[in-house]
Amino acid sequence: MITQLRGILRSVGDEELTLAVEPFDVEVLVPEHARRQLQAKLGEMVTLHTIFYIEGNQMTGRMNPRLVGFLSPIDREFFDTFCSVDGVGAKKALRAMTRPVRELARMIQDQDVVALAHCPGIGEATAERIVAKLRRKVGKFTLIVGQDAADSTASAETNGTPENAEPDVIRDTFAALLSVGHNESQARQAIDRVLVGKKKYRTVPDLIEAIYKSRDEE
Within a domain: residue 106? Predict the structure, then answer.
């Protein structure tokens, strides 16, 4: 399995780009948002986080290996989640990803079917299926922060009331926040903010949704 490629960006097409990974030139499909960001990097060394899949029809015997590339592992994870919806294959997902992952995740989290339906290749019926299946699965993607977040050596312990969430829920939520770019201090503070009340959080999606809503209220 090829999970990462690093090479010189040779060309950028409408849906794909070519990386020079000596001694090969490798064609990689990329989402539209990533393609726009990479257009200005021709001739530069770039790193893509990749997924390998087979495109084609077994009945006709025409099966083509494909690499899909992303600018970060979290974008790759969102793509994989997005493709789990019936009727959303790799090609459709790539066309639809014209905005940052955080914005797409917020459309799903907020059940904004109208906005989601305007993404290329996603009509109203598909948007409704996406929301129905993924609303409880995209919470951490709505909380993605920039790559320049400061490092911290702070402890993973939080100051929130432990009775409001089981330790494993707090621990897994903390890990999810780290995976989308929060440093340890930011993750701990985000969890603390929603554990100070009386509401109980029994699952990670419940706690992440509360964190998302608390950020919108700030």
Answer: yes
